Structure formats: structure tokens, C-alpha cells
Amino acid sequence: MIIKKYGPVILSLTSLLVLSLPGCATMERYSSFPDARIRRGERQPNQLLPRLTADDSGSEQANRQPGDTRVQQTRAAGSGISRMVEDGYGREFSVSTAGLSENRRRLVQAALSLLGRENLRFSDATFPLDCTGVVLAAYHEADLDLTAEFTKYTGNGVQRLYEMAYSNGTAFSSRLPAPGDVIIWDNTYDRNENTRWDDEYTHTGIVVDVNQDGQITYIHHNYAKGIVAARMNLQKAQTYLAETQESGSTLINSPMRMKSHRYLNPDMWLSSHLFRTYVSLAELPRD
Predict the structure, then answer these.
(1) Do 111 and 138 contact (CB within 8 A), yes or no?
(2) Considering its fold, how many domains does the chain have in total?
(3) What distance in Å separates the CA atoms of residue 271 and residue 241, rounded to the nearest whole number?
(4) Is residue 286 a part of any domain in this protein?
(5) Fewest beta carbons within 10 Å, which of 61, 68, 135, 242?
(6) Would residue 8 count as lying in a domain?
(7) Which tens digit of pLDDT belongs to each residue from 236-270?
(8) Distance CA 43, CA 141 (A)
């Protein structure tokens, strides 16, 4: 028997397993989502999120989650931290927090701290193990909780994130995002199973690094690999892998459309193909 996924009780093991199934943003999952903080408690300052600085570069092992092999190495990088992260398929990317504002630095650190986690349970909150849950958890762990604003909107979790930004004038697609911003995708799977290309707001992730050439690294919940890093570059939208002299090949746009759903528009499967918009939530007014 499946226990109700959300309510004023702690999630059961059964419901957590249900939340890990493909389809990260179903309507049902957030339709009765009154408050992300299902399990409340007193949160001690800095208790959950390691506040890394350049002087903390030797303490990476202590900051990693049990079983997390995707966050590899930390080194000083000016006033921030540079890390190597993996995408779940053995490909590594560099992520740096140098030059970021305090809020955005905390958001990147919070997102990186989620890599490899098998649940999003914290001392004072529990979030679903899906794409929206990753974004909500990252903001929560960065002390920029979105819960109050999130509950004002309807629809699946991804649509709520979009509506939050749209209502505040912070949805955009004509410029590069900043670390801490959120990406929205459509048609990452055939959510309504009607074999049509009409599935809006099906996936989301949080940006953790942006290069001048448009290369974006983001953290998201991959239906097969869990919480991992991935990449997107709209300036090279048709490129999956690019040859380089240094490493042989580098990932430009990560696979995004679920493999079993690529029978429809089989050429549209990369993160760049399915991009809808960016949304900025870091500076939203908070109650």
C-alpha cells in the first residue's frame, strides 16, 4: 500500500521509494504540497551546509555526504572554491564560486552538497527526491527558503518555480544565467503519455557554473543516476561531445530526454534541445 506522499507527517520509506521513480515533476506530487518543511525542528546556524572558504580547502572529506563519490577535489580559487564534479557517467567538470555574491556562493555550495545523496531529509525539512526537490533543498540549505512563495502557486513543481519567477519578472532567456539561477525544460519525457510533443514544465535544475563561452554546469536529479552534475550550452545547441586536444572529448550538452521516450522527435534529446527558460529566484522578496 502506498502511503500518502505529503501531509503533516514524516515521509515513509514507501513514499520515498515512490518519489524516486522517473518523472520528476508530476502534478500529483505537488498538488497537496502545503509546506516543504514537513519535518520541523530547531536548525542550528550552519548545521547542515558547510560554509566553505578558501581556507577550508583541506577539509573536503569532512564535507562530503556518505557514499558521495561525485565531488572530487577542492582547491583555493581566489575568494571562492573550485571543485571537480562528475555527471554520473565518469565525465568531470570544474565548478568555481570565485567572484560570486554571498547568496549565490551559498546556493552553489548547497547544490554541490546534494550530489550523490539518496534522500533530501534534513533536521528541519524533508523534500521529495526529484528535480524540484533538489532546487527547493538547495535554496533551503542556502538559507534562502522558497517554501512560502512556492505554496502560492498551483501546478506541478517545475511550473510553480516558473510562475514564481514570472510573477516577479525574473524569468528570462536572452542572456546567460548566473550561478544559483534555475533552468526550466519542456518535453523531457512524455508525461501525459499521449505520444505528442506537448509536455511543458517537465524538468528543472540549478546552475552552479557559467563560462564566458556559454558553457553551463548545473545540478539536477537524473532519473537513472540520481543527483548529479550536467551541462548545457545554447550557443552550441546541436553539439553533444566536442573534440579537444587536452582530453580527447568534452561534454557540451548532456542527454536530457528519457531514452524510452525518444521515439517522438528522436533528434530532440539534449539539454539544449529541450530548454524553455531560465528563472532567477535568489533575489525574490521573502516574507
Answers:
(1) yes
(2) 1
(3) 13
(4) no
(5) 61
(6) no
(7) 999 999 988 776 789 999 999 999 999 999 999 99
(8) 11
